[in-house]
C-alpha cells in the first residue's frame, strides 16, 4: 500500500489547520492550552486519515484488475515492435498504472502505462520497444498499481510474466518485402514475359506493332501457314522471360569496419538485413541462394539452395553471428567461394570501402571474379558523412570536418570507379536504405539477363 498525493495533501491540510488554531489570537484560552489542543486535534485528524488510507488500500485488494502481457514472438532489430497488455476490470471502476520490466538497454515509447477503466470492461494497452542488438533478452514481471476508491492509497502488486525473447534481424522488413514481391509477381505475371527481357523461352504469340522483328519465329510462322488469311497478324514471335534457377551467393563481411555504429545499429546488422532481403528476393525468383560470412576466415558457409525452407535456414544460422574486430581477408573469402561454387553466379559482397589504398585487397579480389562470375560490391554509407560534407559553416573546426568528409566521399567514388572498370557492379547507399535499393538492383539485373 502506497499513500497517494491526496493522502499527503490531507495531512498537510491538517498541519495548516492546526498551525492556524495554535496561532489564532484570543484572550479566553491561554497560548499553551491552544497549542496543546491544536496538537491533539492534529493527532486525531492524522490518525483518521491514516486509518482511512489503510482501509482504502486494503479494500482495493479485493478489486484487483487482471493484467496479462500477450506472448512475445520474435522481435525485429531496429524496428518499433509492439508489446500488448490485456486488462480486465472487476465490478467497480479502476485507475491503474503499469510498469513492464523490459530490457533497459532498449528504447521504449512509454516507460509507464496508465488507464482508467469502467466497471466490467476490458482494454488493451500497447507500447513499442526498439531493440538495437540481436540475441536473447529477458522480460521480467509486470508491476501494477491500482488507486483505491477514495483515491487515498495505491495498492501495488506484481504479475509473474517472466519470459525470454529472441531479437532477430529485421523480420518486419522481410514480411513487408514478401508482400511486395508477391503483389509484384501476381500483377506482372503476364507483363514479365515480354520481348527482350530475358533469355529463356516462354511461349509464342502473334506479332504486335512495336515488337522486335529479330524475335520473329519464321519456322513457327511457316508451320502455321504464312499465307492463310487471318484477322490477326500471321507472324509469330518468341516471348522470353528472365532465366530461373540461377545462383546467388552473398559474401557478408563481419570484420572491423562492420562493427561501427550507423543510425543506431552496427553496420553488420544493416548488412545482415540487406542479405536476408536479397535472399528472399532471390528465392522468390526461383534462384538458388547461398551465404558466406567471413572475417580472417570463412566463419559460416550456407550452400546455395532454393525453396522457402532456405530462408528459415538462413535466419537460424545467421542470427547469432556478431561482428568482430578483425581485418577481413577478401582474397581468402573469394578463393574459398570459387572452390565451393564452380558454376557462374551472382556474387554479392556486402562490406564497407574507404579508398583505393586501404581497400586494395577488396578491389583486387573482386576484379578476379569477373568475367567468370558476376561480382557485385555493396557498401553501406554513413548518412552523417553526407550531412557533414554538405553543411556550410564559418567555424574553422566545422570547415575542417567538412573538408575531411568531402575527401572521404571523393576517395570512395575513385574506388568505385576502379571496380566498375573491372566489370564489378556497385551499389553505395545509406544504411537505412540499403535493403530496398539492393533488392531493386537485383531485380533489374535479373530483368536485363546480366547473369
How would you describe this structure to a colleague?
The chain contains 11 helices and 22 strands. It is of the alpha+beta class and 451 residues long. The chain folds into 4 domains: 2-61; 66-168, Immunoglobulins (Immunoglobulin-like, Sandwich); 195-241, no CATH class; 247-447, 3-Layer(aba) Sandwich (Rossmann fold). A 6-stranded mixed sheet has the order 19-18-15-20-21-22, sandwiched between helices. β18 and β19 form a beta hairpin. The chain is elongated and about 125 Å long.
Query: What is Rg?
Result: 34 Å
Number of helices: 11
Query: In CATH, what is the class of the largest domain?
Result: Alpha Beta
CATH overall fold name of the largest domain: Rossmann fold
List the defining traits of the structure above.
6-stranded mixed beta sheet, 4 domains, alpha+beta, 22 strands, 27% strand, elongated, 5-stranded antiparallel beta sheet, Immunoglobulin-like, 11 helices, 38% helix, 451 residues
Which helices and strands, and how do they pair?
Blueprint: E1 2-3, H1 5-23, H2 31-61, E2 66-69, E3 75-76, E4 81-88, E5 94-100, E6 107-108, E7 113-117, E8 122-130, E9 135-139, E10 142-147, E11 153-159, E12 163-168, H3 171-187, E13 200-206, H4 218-224, E14 236-241, E15 247-253, E16 261-262, E17 265-266, H5 267-284, E18 288-294, E19 298-305, H6 308-318, H7 330-340, E20 346-351, H8 360-369, E21 374-381, H9 383-389, H10 396-421, E22 425-430, H11 434-447
Parallel strand pairs: 3-12, 15-18, 15-20, 20-21, 21-22
Antiparallel strand pairs: 1-11, 2-4, 4-8, 5-7, 5-10, 6-8, 9-12, 10-11, 13-14, 16-17, 18-19
Amino acid at each position: 500500500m502506497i499513500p497517494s498525493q491526496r493522502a499527503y495533501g490531507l495531512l498537510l491540510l491538517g498541519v495548516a489547520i492546526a498551525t492556524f488554531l495554535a496561532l489564532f489570537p484570543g484572550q479566553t484560552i491561554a497560548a499553551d492550552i491552544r497549542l496543546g489542543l491544536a496538537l491533539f486535534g492534529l493527532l486525531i485528524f492524522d490518525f483518521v486519515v491514516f486509518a482511512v488510507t489503510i482501509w482504502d488500500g486494503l479494500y482495493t485488494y479485493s478489486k484487483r484488475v487482471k493484467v496479462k502481457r500477450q506472448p512475445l514472438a520474435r522481435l525485429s532489430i531496429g524496428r518499433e515492435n509492439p508489446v500488448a497488455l490485456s486488462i480486465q476490470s472487476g465490478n467497480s471502476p479502476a485507475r491503474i498504472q503499469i510498469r513492464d520490466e523490459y530490457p533497459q538497454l532498449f528504447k521504449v515509447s512509454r516507460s509507464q502505462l496508465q488507464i482508467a477503466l469502467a466497471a466490467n470492461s476490458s482494454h488493451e494497452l500497447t507500447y513499442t520497444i526498439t531493440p538495437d542488438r540481436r540475441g536473447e533478452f529477458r522480460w521480467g514481471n509486470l508491476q501494477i498499481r491500482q488507486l483505491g476508491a477514495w483515491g487515498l492509497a495505491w495498492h501495488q502488486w506484481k504479475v509473474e510474466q517472466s519470459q525470454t525473447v529472441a531479437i532477430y534481424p529485421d523480420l518486419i522488413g522481410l514480411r513487408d518485402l514478401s508482400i511486395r514481391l508477391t503483389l509484384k509477381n501476381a500483377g506482372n505475371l503476364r507483363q514479365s514475359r515480354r520481348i527482350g527481357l530475358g533469355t529463356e523461352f516462354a511461349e509464342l504469340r502473334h506479332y504486335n506493332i512495336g515488337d522486335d522483328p529479330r524475335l520473329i519465329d519464321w519456322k513457327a510462322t511457316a508451320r502455321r501457314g504464312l499465307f492463310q488469311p487471318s484477322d490477326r497478324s500471321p507472324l509469330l514471335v518468341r516471348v522470353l522471360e528472365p532465366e530461373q534457377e540461377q545462383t546467388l551467393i552473398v559474401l557478408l563481411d563481419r570484420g572491423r569496419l562492420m562493427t561501427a555504429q550507423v543510425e543506431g545499429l552496427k553496420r553488420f546488422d544493416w548488412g545482415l538485413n540487406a542479405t536476408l532481403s536479397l535472399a528472399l528476393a532471390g528465392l522468390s525468383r526461383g534462384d538458388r541462394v547461398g551465404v558466406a560470412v567471413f572475417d580472417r576466415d570463412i566463419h559460416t558457409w550456407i550452400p546455395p539452395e532454393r525453396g522457402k525452407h532456405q530462408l528459415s535456414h538462413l535466419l537460424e544460422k545467421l542470427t547469432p553471428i556478431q561482428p568482430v574486430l578483425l581485418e577481413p581477408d577478401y582474397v581468402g573469402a573469394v578463393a574459398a567461394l570459387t572452390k565451393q561454387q564452380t558454376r557462374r553466379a551472382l556474387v554479392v559482397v556486402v562490406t564497407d570501402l574507404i579508398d583505393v589504398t586501404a581497400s586494395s585487397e577488396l578491389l583486387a579480389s573482386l576484379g578476379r571474379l569477373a568475367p567468370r562470375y558476376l561480382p557485385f560490391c555493396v557498401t553501406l554509407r554513413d548518412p552523417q558523412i553526407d550531412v557533414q560534407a554538405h553543411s556550410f559553416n564559418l567555424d574553422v573546426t566545422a570547415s575542417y570536418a567538412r573538408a575531411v568528409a568531402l575527401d572521404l566521399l571523393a576517395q570512395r567514388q575513385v574506388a568505385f570507379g576502379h571496380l566498375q572498370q573491372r566489370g564489378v557492379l556497385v551499389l553505395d547507399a545509406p544504411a537505412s536504405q540499403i535493403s530496398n535499393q539492393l533488392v531493386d538492383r537485383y531485380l533489374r539485373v535479373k530483368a536485363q539477363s546480366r547473369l
